[in-house]
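Hello again,

I reread your note about wanting to compare the complex against the isolated chains. To keep things tidy I'm splitting this into two emails, and this first one only covers the full assembly. Below are the input lines as submitted, including protein chains and any nucleic acid or small-molecule components. They are followed by the predicted structure of everything together. The single-chain runs will come separately.
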Amino acid sequence: QSALTQPRSVSGSPGQSVTISCTGTSSDVGAYDCVSWYQQHPGKAPKLMIYDVTKRPSGVPDRFSGSKSGNMASLTISGLQADDEGDYYCCSYAGSYTALFGGGTKVTVL
Amino acid sequence: QLQLQESGPGLVKPSETLSLTCTVSGGSLSSSSYYWGWIRQPPGKGLEWIGSLYYTGSTYYNPSLRSRVTIPIDTSKNQFSLILSSVTAADTAVYYCARLTYTWGGLDLWGQGTLVTVSS
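Full-complex prediction:
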């Protein structure tokens, strides 16, 4: 099993939109609608932002949205705000009760 | 409100065994609606899934760690543990316990994490 592939960094100005990709294979991302996204600020535990590909937990702003096409999932942050800066990780179920994380993407608000 | 808290030694010697415990408070570990898991993050690096368990005691491990990992559960204490044997410096990381939705669609609740350093 190899980690899911994410861009190392993305950036945008306040108010803009950014999209983070998460590329897997037909054995993980492409096979199951079990992709989740996490936001992590320095020194803090990850926070669930999206689960089951497109669903938002209670309290997560609707500026965050998830999607999937084939073996690639995406997280879009609309109306970028300063507090959105941090590291973002995708995760996918990979069958046989195993899971894979992406390498992480650093989001910078310019 | 359900909370998770990791505990255990912050320093482990190479070749020895790392043992951590996750205590669940404000709710039951025996819920049929969730799995529970361990995730780690080496300093400055990304997240790695270590393994998960169901309240029945069924366990599932990362294939790359399977030979060294055990995740036992103690429902009477509302705790589950991580036991990682033959550690090396590469096992130095912040270790998190977390709750996993039944569909494996997301880790919706996390502990604060605990740093374990492997060093002599």
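For quick reference: Chain A has no helices and nine strands.

B.
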